[in-house]
Fold:
Amino acid sequence: MSHTPLMLSALATSAVPGFHAVSAQQVSTAERSAALVHDVQNDPWLVELPRTDADQELHSSELQAARALTEGLRSRLPFALPQLAGVTEVQGRTLSVTRYLPGQALQPKGVTPVGAASMGNALAAIHSLPVGPLADHGRVSQSALDTLRESSSVVDATASTGLLPQSLLRRWETACEDAGLWQFEATVIHGICQLPRFLMENQQVVAMDQWQEFRRGDPAKDLSWLTTPANNSFAQNVHTAYRSARGSSDRWIMQRARLYAELDIARWLLHGVALGHDSIIRDATDMLSALNDRVSGDLESAITQPITQSKDPLGGNA
Structure:
């Protein structure tokens, strides 16, 4: 059932006692009824209600993450995060009221050096958060060994399809077997970081959204999006700012980031195979073929060489 902004505003009073809306604007999607609502103080709020079972599951994950983003963690970050005000049940689904996040997502061509530096600083701030509070809220915790095992499992499963180019298989197996690559300290991570997650005003990160995979894990996962061709124009500026702000001794973080970006294509293939969806399988195999052509024989794109000679995937010094 679809709910109008007026209906959502009325239902929000059950989630947040005393809530009084003075205006409401439609921001719904195909999967979720949603409204941008302003209260009597003119503060903006997002009222959301899933329309499908799949989106209800996603919404539950979002709300769990919002609860885990404690005031202590928020106080350490220089930008806004999803903040839950209240929930209520509506016909078996969860209606939520959260503070509306400021800012706008940018397209790659809209990212300036100043904006890229702000993104790098934002990621460094996330990866510098204390990991202790995550355990109190049941967030997933992955060690370096856990992450290696997960990556190896994806490689093995993809190889078993018979659709993976042998040169990519060797590339990924070599990376998984390189002990030096996997010597890192797990940190707090966003988990599904991409350019649209950064909400910007005047080329500054003012908020970040979509925290449902927020966990302790490999910080390289939050940098993997930088290694894709679409982000080449500003990726180095993000990474330079990140390294400067965090001061990490993790020398091979961008090599693992590249591997994770490549394994995302493998996961897409496995998803298509699991569903028996021919168009997804074709899309994924085409992407793997293009990846193979792009990295084959290109030392600048190496994940591991001898590890002591490996270069930063973004073009700087390792």
User: Anything to note?
Assistant: The mean pLDDT is 93. The longest strand covers residues 32-39. The chain has two domains: 5-99, 108-309.
